[in-house]
Amino acid sequence: MVKSGKARAHTNIALIKYWGKADEDLILPMNNSLSVSLERFYTETKVTFSESYTEDTLVLNGETVNAAESKKITRFMDMLRAKTNTTLYSYIESENFVPTAAGLASSASAYAALASACNEALQLGWSDKELSRLARRGSGSASRSIFGGFVEWEKGYDDTTSYSFPIDADRWEDDLAMIFVVINNKSKKVSSRAGMSLTRDTSRFYQYWLDHVDEDIAAVKEAISRKDFKGLGEVIEANGLRMHATNLGAQPPFTYLVPESYQAMEVVHQCRELGYPCYFTMDAGPNVKILVEKHNQAHVIEQLHQHFEPHQIIASDITRSGVEIIE
Ligand code: DP6
């Protein structure tokens, strides 16, 4: 018996960050987070279950991934088998659609696509809410990639209550875009998983982060309801910087940001002075992502071009489509 399904999921960028787990195994976060889904970056994953397979195999962008690297996937598939009473192993073919060499591949789109492809292959009939909970078990941010547009991940308190849902923005997403400034990272990488764990456990600033994140979420939702770009931007920029500040308070302290990241932030400040409102956010790496209204996108890119190579600058629309079954 062979069963297969294929799905596409877009990646998302958090405007209010998920940073720290309350439960490492279930991937329950310490705080709610809120993201936008991106049109241009996505993953397509086909999963095939068959009695003839004796293990899970992952083929990523045409290349078989070795056992050590695919350990996370195997754990995810073991969890899925336990949940669904399936004994079948899988053959997973996944392709990341991200501009070449940009290093923007994301576990968020990967696990959202995989969860949805499994749902299709095994004919589970799970709702988007259930898929969001399932994708969360692979990578926290994947719970948000089940949906398009603005998405909030409710932290919940157990496996059932922690999931994401879309926020109605009356199609405001169509007027917005995100510009990536891709910055080469020469230093040793700290994964988001390791970084958030060290910070939660040791940072002197972590409690301050937790104490203020709910007001940020409320302010962002209020700004979305009024389509208030400045209001939205000021909150998300402060929230992103505060997340990065918690890392500086960790023992030992660390940072994801490099001089070029600060240079990109400076260009954002200049753009605002020139009358082109835009706001930055950064994740577990040095890249800077800039939220802008589409009618100012070309102006901001022009300013960035004075400091960065053309290949370092990639713009994407915000997509309102969530995960979808393809083929
Ligand atoms: C900084 O979702 O990659 O991008 O749950 O351990 O897989 P795991 O972490 P992941 O962390 C994302 C952290 C972030 C902020 C965010 O996306 O909310």
UniProtKB/TrEMBL annotation:
One of its GO terms (biological process) is isopentenyl diphosphate biosynthetic process, mevalonate pathway. It comes from the Bacteria. Gene3D superfamilies: 3.30.230.10, GHMP kinase, C-terminal domain. GO terms for cellular component: cytosol. GO terms for molecular function: ATP binding; diphosphomevalonate decarboxylase activity. The keyword Zinc does not apply. Its EC number is 4.1.1.33. Keywords: ATP-binding, Lipid biosynthesis, Lipid metabolism, Lyase, Nucleotide-binding. The keyword Nucleotide-binding applies. SUPFAM superfamilies: GHMP Kinase, C-terminal domain, Ribosomal protein S5 domain 2-like. It is an enzyme of class 4 (lyase). Residues 9-163 form the Diphosphomevalonate decarboxylase-like N-terminal domain. Residues 179-316 form the Mvd1 C-terminal domain. Belongs to the diphosphomevalonate decarboxylase family. This is diphosphomevalonate decarboxylase.
